[in-house]
Design goal:
The structure holds 2 protein chains of 2 kinds.
Chain A: H1 4-7, H2 17-20, H3 23-39, H4 43-51, H5 53-59, H6 63-86, H7 91-114, H8 117-126, H9 131-159, H10 170-175, H11 178-201, H12 220-242
Helix pairs in contact in A: 3-7, 3-12, 4-7, 6-7, 8-9, 9-11
Chain B: E1 2-11, E2 14-24, E3 29-34, H1 40-44, E4 55-60, E5 63-64, H2 70-73, E6 77-80, H3 93-103, H4 108-121, H5 137-149, E7 155-159, H6 167-182, E8 186-190, H7 194-200, E9 203-208, E10 211-217, H8 218-222, H9 225-230, H10 237-244, H11 257-275
Parallel strand pairs in B: 3-8, 3-9, 6-7, 7-8
Antiparallel strand pairs in B: 1-2, 1-4, 4-5, 9-10
Helix pairs in contact in B: 3-4, 3-5
Chain lengths: ~260, ~280
């Protein structure tokens, strides 16, 4: 289990266009990529969706961490590919499903790498979410790297007791994750309970109406990004419904005894 | 023997251990001490192969950790982590303690015998059928200890074993560790607990900023105020007392309670015979 994947979802303050952008248009970009990747089952479109994100990563000066998250995602991506291919899907369809996963990982990796949890909380409050819920969400985001480090420590502790995660059949390997998952869940519950008690002890929730110190303001460039993204989404939906796009599916698949 | 040769280790690009050379003979008792972030835990994670050196090598009984798996090394090196919550998962304390023995392929009869023995030794006999997750912090710590010590590894590495233990449990733990050591097992503890170290009387390896600052008998290291302060530790209370009495002719290097008592008794007798 590598921590690199989680590094690709952790915010680091930098002075780039993407870091300065309001979180709302940024979320709209991630959401548009997410929706387009869902409505298109086409390897070419998904490849384009993945490729267009590379300049964004470059602009956010986070290429190394993005690679980390993509590398971490390759294990699951490989599982998705083989699960599809070995259960009768065509080679191209399996690749499409794999690409869809990588597109989603990439889109949200860029969003979380460039959006501070504070800005994210403010954005959630601006769209009407109660403070307690936005706080819960942003705290969860903040805790992801901590929990990733904890997961690594748990893996180390169990390996020190002779647990070999990379040996045995698929079912045996899955079962071997029980000694990892239970301490991780228990520890996360303990941590959240202690955090809740500590927050309440410091007066969390004592005031009904909160006045935020900082407020989000959309700049012209933010509006431009939001409008362009919306137009791309509308165009994407329109093209998908009206124009035929070649599927490139050659029909190569593994012959199964019970048919495709 | 645990042999560390020119060990350097870096997390990403940041080197946290610099050129460590260390030999721990079989049956030795060593305390690794130093400030937070000195590299103590990183060092001991090399002893069972969880971390592999960026440069240099670590040899366990002559075998490089690069050439062995963590599972194989866990037969001879038992590493107990600082936080027990990082390893407890079973339904009962018994199952939790039996976990490593079953991983190492011991017959069920041996598993039962060894688990019962270790539970009794660590005062956990009454909890065998309890959930380890429901125990108190100190009890969970002892379950974690038991679950590694049960396989009776040749080299025992304990990361902060005294955290969360009351005085009596610390004493029980000390006796147990000393007993394991007297049976010929190598014991390495990572700790900030200077009083515990004084009671155990081990060899002390003082780490600071990823390098070995000092290595020697506990009394010569812990009575050296400059060294101790460099490693962000406080001297043992007896050492502080004897240093403050140095002007009256007491030896400030005395660190042991019994030595301090006999020195005080001797001086008191001298005073009484002179003045009374």
């Amino acid at each position: 289990m590598s921590l690199n994947m989680f590094e690709g979802f952790k915010f680091k303050r930098k002075d780039t266009l993407l870091h300065r952008m309001d979180p709302r248009p940024k979320f709209l970009i991630a959401l548009t990529i997410f929706l387009l990747s869902l409505i298109y089952v086409n390897v070419l479109v998904l490849l384009i969706l993945l490729t267009v994100q590379v300049p964004l990563v470059y602009a956010s000066k986070s290429m190394r961490r993005w690679f980390g998250s993509m590398r971490g995602g390759t294990i699951l991506a490989a599982m998705i590919f083989f699960m599809n291919f070995l259960t009768g899907s065509t080679l191209v369809f399996s690749a499409t499903m794999t690409l869809r996963f990588l597109v989603l990982v990439s889109a949200f990796s860029i969003f979380f790498m460039t959006t501070s949890p504070d800005d994210l909380g403010l954005a959630l409050e601006r769209i009407g979410l109660p403070y307690t819920l936005s706080f819960t969400f942003t705290t969860s985001v903040r805790l992801v790297p901590t929990i990733a480090i904890e997961a690594q420590t748990i893996v180390d502790a169990q390996r020190s007791r002779g647990l070999e995660l990379d040996r045995g059949s698929v079912i045996e390997r899955v079962r071997k994750y029980i000694p990892i998952l239970i301490p991780l869940i228990v520890s996360a519950i303990r941590r959240s309970t202690e955090l809740a008690e500590a927050l309440e002890s410091r007066g969390f929730g004592a005031v009904k109406h909160r006045e935020p110190l900082a407020t989000l303001r959309m700049k012209r460039s933010d509006w431009a990004a939001a409008i362009t993204t919306t137009l791309v989404l509308v165009a994407g939906v329109y093209v998908q419904n009206t124009m035929p796009i070649p599927s490139f599916d050659t029909g190569i698949r593994i012959p199964l005894p019970w048919g495709p | 023997m645990i042999e560390v040769r020119g060990l350097c280790f870096a997390y990403d690009d940041v080197e946290v251990l610099h050129n460590i050379d260390l030999r721990i003979s079989d049956g030795e008792f060593v305390a690794v001490m130093g400030e937070n972030g000195a590299g103590k835990t990183t060092l001991i994670k090399h002893f069972n192969g969880l971390l592999k050196p960026s440069r240099g090598e670590v040899l366990i009984d002559g075998v490089s950790t690069r050439e062995s798996t963590v599972a194989n090394l866990s037969r001879v090196v038992g590493l107990v982590f600082q936080n027990p919550d990082h390893q407890l998962f079973s339904e009962t304390v018994f199952e939790e303690v039996a976990f490593s023995l079953r991983n190492l392929g011991y017959p069920e009869e041996t598993v039962r015998r060894r688990v019962r023995f270790i539970l009794e030794t660590l005062d956990l006999g009454g909890y065998a059928e309890e959930s380890p997750l429901m125990l108190s912090g100190g009890e969970r710590k002892r379950v974690a200890l038991a679950s590694v010590l049960v396989s009776e590894p040749k080299h025992i590495i304990l990361d902060e074993p005294t955290i969360g233990q009351d005085y009596q449990q610390k004493e029980r733990l000390r006796n147990f560790i000393v007993q394991m050591n007297s049976q010929g097992r190598t014991v390495v503890i990572v700790t900030h607990d200077v009083e515990f170290v004084v009671d155990c009387k081990p060899r002390v390896v003082l780490l600071s900023r990823g390098s070995i600052l000092a290595d020697g008998p506990y009394d010569s290291i812990l009575s050296d105020r400059i060294l101790v302060e460099k490693a962000s530790l406080i001297p043992p209370q007896i050492s502080i007392l004897m240093s403050s009495l140095a002007g009256l002719g007491f030896n400030p290097k005395i660190i042991d309670l019994y030595q301090a008592r006999s020195a005080l008794e001797k001086r008191l007798c001298e005073y009484v015979s002179e003045h009374v």
